[in-house]
Amino acid sequence: MNAKYLNIYNEIVSQIQSGQLKKDTKLLSENDYMRLYDVSRDTIRKALNLLEQEGYIQKIKGKGSFVLDINKFDFPVSGIVTFKELAKMMNEKSRTILVSLDLDLADSFTMKKLNISSEDKVWKVVRVREIGKNKVILDKDYISEKFVPNLTKEICEDSIYEYIENSLGLKISFAKKEITVEKATKEDKKNLDLKEYDMVVVVKSYTYLDDASLFQYSESRHRPDKFKFVDFARRKTLYPNG
């Protein structure tokens, strides 16, 4: 027999999935749920904690529990996909807002990330990605000028990768990625519609051309409720005879 908290969890999940409880709806208080289901506070807290862990609700201290948007956008982890391509797949109205575009000599940060010298120049491109009416991604790109000698506002608001591949004739080949969850910075809070969220999902990427030249380091900072990070994995035996 399922534990009582699992029955409560499943019932609330059903209400969310059916649309009976819509996104941003505030759930009943713990006391109300205790009376409704005739169970202890500990049982209700277990159910609410599981709902939060599974991404159905967000508990906000002093305010209560709120239903999240369960219709998240799939963000492919293994592929190299531009925001323009992603927006087409999502079939959602979107736009890119250029926050800043600068070309400067490499500092200690970009020297380390791009493996370049202090005499090399680096483009720093900061863009906000808007889906629907929500600003949900902050992209910070650092691109080596020796591979991409020119960037404009128009290119940055359209697609840098399209420009690199179609206009410069370079082939983007592969990327190494790292995904972390980090505390939202002042920059995140200023540029994104974070609502009550104080964390962001950060995808850090080192992107290479087909000759294995590292030309870009980027940090893509996402509002945590809007994306699912998906991948396809195939089993490969590391020790065939073991």
UniProtKB/TrEMBL annotation:
Domain annotation HTH gntR-type: ranges: 2-70
A single GO BP: negative regulation of DNA-templated transcription
Coiled coil regions in record: none
Keywords noted in UniProt: DNA-binding, Repressor, Transcription, Transcription regulation
GO molecular function, one term: DNA binding
NCBIfam families: trehalos_R_Bsub
The protein, known as: Trehalose operon repressor
Species the sequence originates in: Alkalithermobacter thermoalcaliphilus JW-YL-7 = DSM 7308
